[in-house]
Design goal:
- The chain is α/β, with parallel strands linked by helices.
- The protein folds into three domains: about 5-265, 2-enoyl-CoA Hydratase, Chain A, domain 1 (Alpha-Beta Complex); about 300-480, NAD(P)-binding Rossmann-like Domain (Rossmann fold), CATH 3.40.50.720; about 485-709, N-(1-d-carboxylethyl)-l-norvaline Dehydrogenase, domain 2 (Orthogonal Bundle), CATH 1.10.1040.
- The protein contains 30 helices and 17 strands.
- The strands form three sheets. The protein has an eight-stranded mixed β-sheet, with helices on both faces. The protein has a six-stranded mixed β-sheet with strand order 1-2-3-4-6-9, with helices on both faces. Strands 5-7-8 form a three-stranded mixed β-sheet.
- Helix 18 (about 455-465) links the parallel strand 16 and strand 17.
- The chain binds nicotinamide-adenine-dinucleotide (NAD).
């Protein structure tokens, strides 16, 4: 059952009943139509109330149906709306919780709308690279006025019913009910009060216009273009709303439909829809059910108040949790506390935090040099130097002071979480929480699941991540986890491109034009070139077969560690961050190339982008194969939230899916045949090869959870 029918004397109440958000999938649409036909044929029914079961009226269309046959199957949402609008008896929408997207469009088809205070109204389609495709762009301007409607449609953000009700001249809501408990009764009374009204009001008959239409829409177009240059949806929204003001309703509706269908199949909308689902999918862990009990976390301890520890502490203070911050010396503790204070005070200066909230947060911070102060913490996060022996000693101490059941987390970037766990008598309580720098800003959190990490520890870590507003992705233990392991291959490939003739500037610009926030060389200069150097030195002894371009090592030998030394792949003026081409580096690259006996060749932007992105994709496929990442959507979320991959490309794995995996593999084979290139590097991961041969995709095989086959 996806819609309930109740007869209350003279009023029929049709209730959308499709948990969790009354999504308007095919079955629900059919059920609503059947209920409406029943109300039509029952002579005793004087009017209809349409409401929603559970916490919300309707979250709108079912996005999993988009681009499939079911979305097109009759009755389409437009048919249901048409049936309601032309219904012979009054239909009153009763809104609570949220009326979003198709849910709001359905309500706009009703003759009247009542809403309880607190109801969120939105047309969020633009966030999926679409426009409201069931009349929203035509009806909303008629009830709200063009400017407010376009604002709502372009932002995709929700407004509260009470704010709408206050707008002068609005015709979106006929009645605001202050007590949500009274909504049903109020809607039924309202329906009785209008039962005899004829003709019935229809939004389509209202006028839509703007006194300075042409100028206003030109202005809106300029803004939309500037805000989202790669995303076609905002401009289409402006066009469709303009059509509402210049064309008859039916023509405008057809135009909206045409633009909607055009957007539906754009790569950008596919990518944004993928991201929407992938984001929600990260929380699902195949063998850890949603109802896994969580451990209460009411107090936190952070060990090490350096770059990471101070940022990590800020996250929990923001969430209102007390944090004990432990250091090994008074000076380091002083520095760490000052760093935390600076972050909050910086927000106060920018007007993002009130002075009072700043004081409250700092009051929750307990700087300490005494291990025993960690005894109260339910979660302890270690962020000391990246050195196994140092971390092992810290975990032995934590094991001694932490209360039973406390979660012991490490922020290590490269060390083996299982080995760290083995330093304690409670490896089941140990988990990796890999924050990214700056930890109070970056959205990404890799939750590293050790061999013995207990399911409730994992479930608790995921819930905590939500509480501190991070996107958490589960990774199994390996060197570099998901993000940095892939990044290493990306950097190796960037080095090979230098050897073959590209310059750091050309490579950075090509990938930045593709949409990445920062190219590999600017990124490395920012993070510090010595970090990669340390990792490579380890690789040279552990994996002597792995080939690297030597340029990055030469750079470090020259002491060019990046922005912090005023020189890296680029030159930097004192106190400035803009990257200037360096003649010294160009010379070094040339000399290095000569030692390799390579003649430089011109490399086009497309090849640069493919080589960098496919390097990520191939390693991503290996991560899936090994079960380090459970789903390709998780890998995409890592790159979108931690590495500046453009959201409108959907992440590296989705991008590969969109190119077609066969085409990806063929391109990789072409690179492997290049005499300068490394054939071993371009050996496709077996999973990639298998999917390509089957005409499969990472998303279809991995988005539903579970480890790789
Ligand atoms: P950092 O050098 O800035 O800070 C480390 C702090 O730990 C220092 O303040 C030091 O005094 C303190 N410390 C050392 N031993 C201690 C002990 N026994 N007890 C208490 N405090 C002790 O280092 P960081 O950049 O903050 O890195 C910390 C951890 O986070 C490392 O494991 C690193 O790999 C990881 N990490 C760093 C980044 C990054 O970008 N910096 C990103 C992700 C993860």
């Amino acid at each position: 059952m996806t819609a309930l029918y109740q007869f209350l004397g003279d009023i029929a109440v049709i209730t959308l009943d499709h948990p969790p958000v009354n999504g308007l999938d095919l079955a629900t649409r059919r059920a609503v139509v059947q209920a409406l036909l029943r109300a039509q044929s029952d002579g005793a029914v004087q009017a209809v109330v349409l409401d929603g079961a559970g916490r919300t009226f309707s979250g709108g269309a079912d996005i999993k149906e988009f681009g499939t046959d079911r979305a097109m199957q009759s009755p389409h949402l437009l048919d249901v709306i048409e049936l309601i609008e032309s219904f012979g008896k009054p239909v009153v929408a009763a809104l609570h919780g949220a009326a979003m997207g198709g849910g709001l469009e359905l309500a706009l088809g009703c003759h009247y709308r009542v809403a309880s205070a607190g109801t969120r109204l939105a047309l969020p389609e633009v966030k999926l690279g679409l426009l409201p495709g069931a009349g929203g762009t035509q009806r909303l301007p008629r009830v709200l006025g063009v400017e407010a409607a376009l604002n709502l449609i372009l932002s995709g953000e929700a407004v509260l019913a009470e704010a709408v009700a206050r707008l002068p001249g609005q015709k979106l809501l006929d009645l605001l009910v202050s007590d949500p408990q009274q909504l049903r009764d109020a809607a039924v009374s309202f329906a009785r009060s209008v039962a005899a009204d004829r003709p019935l009001p229809q939004v389509r008959r209202l006028p839509a216009g703007h006194p300075q239409g042409a100028a206003f829409f030109q202005f809106a177009r300029n803004t939309a273009r500037a805000m989202a240059p790669h995303i076609p949806a905002p401009l289409a929204c402006v066009d469709a709303v303009e059509a509402a003001t210049t064309r008859p309703f039916e023509v405008g509706l057809a135009y909206e439909r045409e633009r909607f269908m055009g957007l539906m199949y754009t790569p950008v909308s596919r990518a944004l829809r993928h991201v929407f689902l992938a984001e929600r999918g990260t929380a699902r862990i195949a063998d850890v059910p949603d109802d896994t009990p969580r451990r209460p976390v009411l107090a936190v301890g952070v060990v090490g108040a350096g770059t990471m520890g101070s940022g990590i502490a800020v996250n929990f203070l923001d969430a209102g949790l007390p944090v004990a911050l432990l250091e090994s010396s008074a000076e380091a503790l002083e520095r760490g506390t000052a760093a935390v204070t600076r972050i909050f005070e910086g927000r106060v200066k920018k007007g993002k935090l009130s002075a009072e909230a700043c004081t409250q947060r700092l009051a929750l911070l307990q700087p300490t040099l005494d291990d025993s102060d960690l005894g109260r913490a339910d979660l302890l996060i270690e962020a000391v130097y990246e050195d196994f022996d140092v971390k092992a000693a810290v975990f032995r101490r934590l094991d001694a002071v932490a209360k039973p059941g406390a979660i012991l987390a490490t922020n290590t970037s490269t060390l083996d979480v299982d080995r760290i766990a083995a330093c304690t008598r409670r490896p089941q309580d140990v988990v990796g929480l890999h924050f990214f720098s700056p930890a109070h800003v970056m959205k990404l959190l890799e939750v590293v699941r050790g061999r013995e990490t207990a399911p409730d520890v994992l479930a608790t870590a995921m819930a905590l991540a939500r509480q501190i507003k991070k996107t958490a992705v589960v990774a199994r233990v390996c060197d570099g986890f998901i993000g940095n392991r892939m990044l290493e291959q990306y950097f190796r490939q960037a080095g090979f491109l230098l050897d073959e003739g590209a310059t750091p500037g050309q490579i950075d610009q090509a990938i930045e034009r593709f949409g990445l926030a920062m190219g590999p060389f600017r990124m490395s200069d920012l993070a510090g070139n010595d970090i990669g150097w340390a990792i490579r030195k380890r690789r040279y002894s552990e994996q002597p077969d792995m080939r690297y371009s030597g340029t990055a090592d030469r750079l470090c030998e020259m002491g060019r560690f990046g922005q912090k030394t005023g020189a890296g792949w680029y030159d930097y003026q004192p106190g400035q961050r803009s990257a200037l081409p360096s003649a010294e580096v160009a010379q070094m690259i040339e000399a290095h190339r000569a030692t390799l006996g390579l003649a430089p060749r011109r490399i086009g932007d497309q090849e640069i982008v493919q080589r960098l992105v496919y390097a990520l994709v191939n390693e991503g496929a290996r991560l899936l194969e090994e079960g380090i990442a459970a789903k390709s959507g998780d890998i995409d979320m890592v790159y979108l939230t931690g590495y500046g991959f453009p959201v409108w490309r959907g992440g590296p794995m989705h991008f590969a899916d969109q190119q077609g995996l066969l085409s990806v593999v063929q391109t990789m084979r072409r690179f492997a045949a290049n005499p300068h290139d490394d054939a071993a590097f371009w050996q496709p991961a077996p999973l990639l090869e298998k999917l390509a041969a089957q005409g499969g995709s990472f998303g279809a095989d991995h988005s539903r959870g579970g480890a790789a086959s």
